[in-house]
């Protein structure tokens, strides 16, 4: 007996030591996780906010779809708009107006308050915006940014962390009612629940009910595997006890609410009530209604089995079960219960991430400060306020894919057997004045290839490079500009001896045109005339001009550079064209404005930066030349596509038709389209048939076919009439006249007809009268 | 044709004095331009005015957000660049105002919005930016010119957000 007693004591002691040691180890695991970084929160990239203002074409921006994407719920109009009760995050449409209760949103520079507004509609135009509370007319309102995407870790978990104090009480009540009604009183394990579950399972003959408390669930999700073994169960119970001993109920509850798995958004796992609220209702958890809270609590048990998207009836039934529990446990009033129970499931539209935005996200990541490496971005919940225009991005992706598919349909030879080696393309869209990337689609499918052809590929731009030659030639130099727009160029056979042998450029149509005007050379994209001009200007000056405009890639110091044989990326080409569009001011490329850490502190900020690199006159003359390409030249397809207003641009087809480019701009947008194969092979088509239609379709969609603004000449550029065949100043009696622009001081000295002064003795007098009239006009303008 | 072109000019000349003397133009207030231009320009200017209000209230980050929205709507609006230049002159990096002033000048000139009242601000802000950046030799003469053009605003060598608003 005595021996047995000792044995029991020793065994008991050893078991105690074992359990103690085990508990110490578990405690270490718990504290390490709780005291360290509890959650990996992927950083989120947000688009630029949409601005609504009187005069905006609301149909073109697809306002209705936009509001649905942002999680605004549509209510039926009962009575008048002004009298309707429109809760936060809801919208009511009538024929000539809509009333929307905008949610406020956080913004690092200027948070937007919630606003209840009426938007008056006249046809497709917003006529007025009025605040319903004050009746004040508003000039502009901002809608919250859309989520462009997130930087996920290997687990592809997304969560939006919430604090217990900022979520509605009914959400907590709903979760407790269904998952752990005695959470406030137990110490980690609820024996009554365990017994109840055991009995229920015994009756059912299988495991139907779990007896785990919320703390146990947290222990399991946070630290353990989902296997159902006794050892795992004991560890779970031990950990639950330890957690309860170490941490407050609030801390445990908050951690649970942020950890719990609540469904899928495509391939991304949605964790926590904050993210679930975004997924199912398109709004922050703090704005949840009781019925919505109950739905979230309802799906904890089986997020995919009771997914309201996939099984709405099942989800609704379980939601009502939760509401019933809440009512029976005294957590909600009868009236709230009844109202919530009768509510239909009003879910947000499912908005899968735009996969093609990943190219932009990758480009943005390369612009971030170095400290924001992959590990940081995938875990620290940084919010990045990007420059991306969500609508433009979507349109760019759609247009590129449709354009490439259309090409393959019309030219079956372009279809590759292996999709990974198929026809590719990219579109990049910049705002020339600010350098903001508004859209970037680096390929037709991010899933198929993550290689970004807009920023990572370098390909020969062909004739899309020529504007840099002409800009260099038009720019005032110490010895004077090489050409004016009235100059004549030589498009006759050319042979240049180089270290690689003779170089003999040819035109696209294999013809030589002899004496041609500058405009004709650009509009018809004549290679020989341009090559000869580049030789006159000097390759060094052409390279210098390209550098100043924004080309950074290495450029070969060879005569053929003029015809675009140096590889460049679409993005740098876009930047160089942006400099021309911006009157000679080169913008710094920006992908984001603000970077805000998880605590809401702005940790990085990008301001607009630009620098004048070219005089306004030369930039304007170059732009004017490129307008001609669209009006009469190789990019007439732009006009045929129904785009009206100021557009300039240049096509480019590389040697062997391997690359098709169109770099074009309006006063407010620069768009570069590239099409080709990753392993360069011939498209068998020119850029006019490949890249221009894609460009035109995109810009037509964006602008509605009416481009805003104008390319305006600076004061030192004047318009005169010339005789195009000779470039002489055209006067009365000159048989052919054509308007042309000149920087003051570079006007032609020749006059047409050559005997003008003799034939018109009043010529000098006329000139004097012109000057006087201009002076008077200036004076009047000042006075008036 | 040439002779007929003189007729409206002469009528305009005759009418000009009726508008009253305006020998000393005051500095331009952007609110005077409200309602001009198309929808984008009007809203953009409205946002600039709000931005100036934020600047005047000591909320520079909010002001920048307004200017940024204004640029998004109408990137060729010269008044955004003018307001941004003013914002930077009062900020910690006054030299950042200079490219914005260049841009504002380019746009007002191209759009025909230049006038002595605008010129006063362009010169004055450039002068103030240069002086604040430690380049008084270049800046002070410009401030003098601005003073001469708009003494009511530039007498103190500073353009407040309120004065531009």
Notes on the structure:
The complex is a heterodimer of chains A (784) and B (165). Chain A has 784 residues and is an alpha+beta fold. Chain A is built from 24 helices and 30 strands. In chain A, the strands form nine sheets. Chain A has a five-stranded mixed β-sheet with strand order 9-1-13-21-22. In chain A, strand 21 and strand 22 (602-605) form a beta hairpin. In chain A, helix 3 runs parallel beside helix 9 (290-298). The termini of chain A are far apart. With 165 residues, chain B is an all-alpha fold. Chain B has a single domain (30-164), classed as Serine Threonine Protein Phosphatase 5, Tetratricopeptide repeat (Alpha Horseshoe), CATH 1.25.40. Chain B has helices at 6-15, 39-56, 60-73, 78-89, 97-110, 116-132, 136-149, 151-154, 161-164. In chain B, helix 2 (39-56) packs antiparallel against helix 3 (60-73) and helix 5 runs antiparallel to helix 6 (116-132). The longest helix of chain B is centred in the N-terminal third of the chain and has 18 residues, at 39-56. The model of chain B is unreliable at 1-5 and 11-23 (pLDDT under 50). Chain A binds chain B through residues 48-49, 51, 53-56, 107-110, 139-140, 142, 431-434, 583, 585, 593, 607-612, 616, 667-668, 708-709, 712-715, 766, 769, 773, 776-777, 780, 782-784, and chain B through 2, 5-6, 9, 12-13, 16, 19, 22, 38-40, 42-43, 46-47, 50, 54, 59, 61-62, 64-66, 68-69, 71-73, 75-76, 84, 96, 99, 102-103, 106, 109-111, 115-116.
